[in-house]
Amino acid sequence: MSAPPRLSPLQVLACGALIVTLSMGIRHGFGLWLQPITQAQGWTRENFAFAMAIQNLAWGCFGIFAGMAADRFGAFRVLVGGSVLYGLGLAGMALTTTPLGFALTTGVLIGAAQAGTTYAVIYGVIGRQIPAEKRSWAMGVAAAAGSFGQFLMVPVEGALIAQLGWQNALLVLGVAVLLIAPLAWGLREPGFAGGQPPKREQTIGQALREAFGYRSFQLLMAGYFVCGFQVVFIGVHMPSYLKDNGLSPQVASYALALIGLFNVVGTYMAGSLGQRMAKKHILAFIYFARAAVIAVFLWAPLTPTSVYIFSAVMGLLWLSTVPPTNATVAQIFGVAHLSMLGGFVFFSHQIGSFMGVWLGGVLYDRTGSYDIVWYISIGLGIFAGLINLPVREAPIARGVHPAGAGA
Description:
Blueprint (H helix, E strand, L loop, with lengths): L8 H20 L5 H8 L3 H29 L1 H21 L3 H17 L3 H11 L2 H33 L1 H11 L3 H5 L19 H9 L2 H30 L4 H25 L5 H21 L4 H14 L4 H12 L4 H30 L3 H18 L19
Helix pairs in contact: 1-6, 1-7, 2-3, 3-4, 3-5, 3-16, 4-5, 4-8, 6-7, 6-16, 7-8, 7-12, 7-15, 11-12, 11-16, 11-17, 12-14, 12-15, 13-14, 13-15, 13-17, 15-16
């Protein structure tokens, strides 16, 4: 039986990149709503941070099942459902009046929507439709698109809040995110015609037992936990950290935009380098560099210039972990269950995200400072750099005891 025809690489990258740009771009600006919402509703920062933490945890949890569904039925249906949930969640974020309702809409609903509209699903399509010799590069392009979305959307979101008010700004975004549905039409994979998955040599259970029994998969998951902790803490709490230290809200908006702009370069470079050098070395460098950059940022005088330098350098490292991590999973285990396995790795990332954003709110409310969480981020960066070094990237040997299973 011949293999089903593949989609055009240009079509896959164009539609996938635009979807990630929109989904991630909106998500990266949520920190801009922390102070407007807490002040308008009379809530604490912990209330807001808890909902964001729930969002990240829900994203990771639902990401596993979104990945399974995308592997089974194709990405198109999952993306359409995710876009509808995203629109409803943003409307709920705007209209809810209680911390519980905020946690359910902003947390659970948007988290589930992000699971169906971001990397795990898009990377599954890329893994199946792009040849292996270009896969890491293509994943870098998709991740760079998410970064461009941050650069593009964060200033737009700031302007919408200023011009329309925080509630109306969210409602406008709730309509805009529905554009994901027509873009998903371009990712209808021929191999899933009629709702039938392509034949695979492994069941879901066999794939999970193999992955979770393989030490390198465990190490990749642990490193991704640290990635989530760092980037979500910074993305959500840095605007308030800067304002607490006397800097204007515009500095925070420009800082987040710079992170997104420079991450376009960082993620593309990481994906491209992953085709030519060991991906574990790329990952170790990224985590070590993050720890160093955060340390310098804390010890240097805090000025708009230092914030912009920090944001530019951190931007190069921001989501640059995504292409080499997912490409390594694909290289070790193949692409048949890539969306699902990528969902499990991402779930670890989102547990870290939960801890980073939640601890940021809790420790700020307890101590009046973010310093403890900044220093935790430095220590975790060093830890993640070390544990990525032993990862084995060679394809796993099936039918015999997996080489490297205990390594």
